[in-house]
Amino acid sequence: MSDQSDRPERWSRATTYPDMWADPDDDPRNSEENSPDGELPTLLDFLSGYRMTLRMKCEGLNAEQLARRSVPPSTMSLLGLVRHLVEVERDWRTWISDDPVPKLYGARGADFTGAVADPAVVDEAFASLEREQAATDALLAAHPDLGERLGKDRTSVRELMVHRIEEYARHCGHADLLRECVDGRVGQ
């Protein structure tokens, strides 16, 4: 067990509200536009915001920091979360189309255990996340009716969208804690 001196001091870049990740004027998730009209645009807006939040929690860290595990025996790290979400995006495509998409990282848990402090692994993970998000987005874009049921489980598009938001939101909460463990940075 580490002692208190091993822990980074808590800090934030925000000056307006010190419990925020960034000042409102500097936060790319804030816009001057009104919130979107309609259920699907609202769901897509929330998904986009959580995806951006995950990337923000990883910004400015090197490969070692991104791969740093939280608390033994957990294998969770920021890089592991990114790799996990790559696999999750691939899984959703299987739910949508019934055409199984094989795991990218292999055996169950390899998304986390393979999250090693190597810049090439980091670059691959972020490129894969962007590619897999785009592929899932494109597949779902062909089904704008939120009540439409897809795949062998007949899951509604609405449920898939809400599940995606829930998955990113939950992991953004993990990312908050992981980032604070790495360098002490806190904020929403």
- Principal-axes shape call: flat
Structural class: mainly alpha
User: What is the CATH superfamily classification?
Assistant: dinb family like domain
Major beta sheet summary:
2 strands, antiparallel
Q: Please mark out the parts with pLDDT under 50 across 5 or more consecutive residues, or reply none.
A: none
Count of distinct strands: 2
Q: What is the alpha-carbon Rg in Å? A: 18 Å
Task: Describe the strand arrangement of the main beta sheet, using strand numbers.
Answer: 1-2
- The third-level CATH topology is Four Helix Bundle (Hemerythrin (Met), subunit A)
User: Could you tell me the mean pLDDT?
Assistant: 90
* N to C succession of SSEs: HHHHHEEH
The first-to-last residue Cα distance is 28 Å
Helix tally?
6
CATH class: Mainly Alpha
Description:
This protein has helices spanning 39-58, 63-67, 78-97, 110-113, 119-141, 157-183; strands at 149-150, 155-156. The chain has 188 residues and is mostly helical. It has a two-stranded antiparallel sheet with strand order 1-2. Helix 3 (78-97) runs parallel beside helix 5 (119-141). InterPro entries: DinB/YfiT-like, MST-like. It comes from Streptomyces atriruber. This is DinB family protein. Residues 1-12 have a biased composition (Basic and acidic residues).
Can you describe this structure in just a few lines?
By secondary structure, the protein is an all-alpha fold.
SSE diagram, text form:
Elements: H1 39-58, H2 63-67, H3 78-97, H4 110-113, H5 119-141, E1 149-150, E2 155-156, H6 157-183
Antiparallel strand pairs: 1-2
Helix pairs in contact: 1-6, 3-5, 3-6
